[in-house]
Amino acid sequence: MPDFSIAIHGGAGTITPASMTPELEKAYKGALAKALDKGYRVLADGGTALDAVEIAVAELEDSHLFNAGRGSVFTKEGKHEMDAAIMCGKTLEAGAVAGVRSIRNPVTLTRAIMEHSDHVFMSGYGAEEFARKHGIAFEPEEYFYDSHRYKQWRDVRDTDVFMLDHTEERKFGTVGAVARDEAGNLAAATSTGGMTNKNFNRIGDTPIIGSGTYANNKTCAISCTGHGEYFIRAVVAYDVSCLMEYKGYTLQQACNLVVKEKLVKFGGEGGLIAVDAAGNLALPFNSEGMYRGSRTSNGDAKVAIYKG
Hints:
It comes from Pontibacter aquaedesilientis. InterPro entries: Ntn_hydrolases_N (IPR029055), Peptidase_T2 (IPR000246). This protein is α+β, with helices and mostly antiparallel strands. It has a single domain (5-306), classed as Glutamine Phosphoribosylpyrophosphate, subunit 1, domain 1 (4-Layer Sandwich). Helix content is 33%, strand content 24%. The protein has helices spanning 22-44, 49-61, 106-116, 124-133, 147-156, 228-234, 236-247, 251-265, and strands spanning 5-13, 82-88, 94-100, 121-123, 171-172, 175-180, 186-192, 213-215, 220-226, 270-276, 281-282, 289-296, 301-306. The strands form two sheets. Strands 1, 2, 3, 4, 5, 6, 7, 12 and 13 form a nine-stranded mixed β-sheet that branches. It has a four-stranded antiparallel β-sheet with strand order 8-9-10-11. α1 packs antiparallel against α2 and α7 crosses α8 (251-265). The longest helix has 23 residues, at 22-44. The chain is globular.
């Protein structure tokens, strides 16, 4: 059994070698490896799972490659609305935000909500006011600008079409991390910029505790990525935990049932990353690919994009 483990993801969907250039694939793998290493170093130095997932997700948020933080897609109004969540498996405390703008690292704001308020979930203007009160970093609009993201939004901004991520292909843009530390505590964190051209302040599964993010020391920690409406309706993250707690499933069995059977039956596409109380990892997905990485104290480390 590993003393500690960590897994990360950067989104799932129709991600194939044919849709990649060698340069882009190298960039994605490099960004994943950097985030994975930062989270792993926290655990290797005796740090907490909460710190590890926050730092790993913040690193992914700082990259323009992923639909979260700096790389967030454009809304119908040409703005950026970000959602995120974090959860502690030891205490079942959690923090979440939806529809925030200009926050450099939404995951950092969720940690502040969890630790410095009596609430779990904040949104919009109020969450931003809370962020200012607690010294959370903001960035100007141009920080979040990416020419490729902008072009994709410009192509559909005058229509009622929304896209699941920043390309016309099916890519679900979310980042996340799960970890188990040396003390046996679990944690999960997830962050996203949502859907290109989304309207009406749409919110997906990412900030919803039990749907896109969940952690419980008794069972597992989960971070999801996929078509959020399906993950909300299936209560995916909590369903995995329940299968383990009440039916005695292993982590892999529970993940496979939820992701590769239950979701598929009613059209839900995507995946998740998970770690259990023993430090075992699972990274299942039912799409063509998922940006992902994992590392354990036993020396097992990998970064991958495609199936197989």
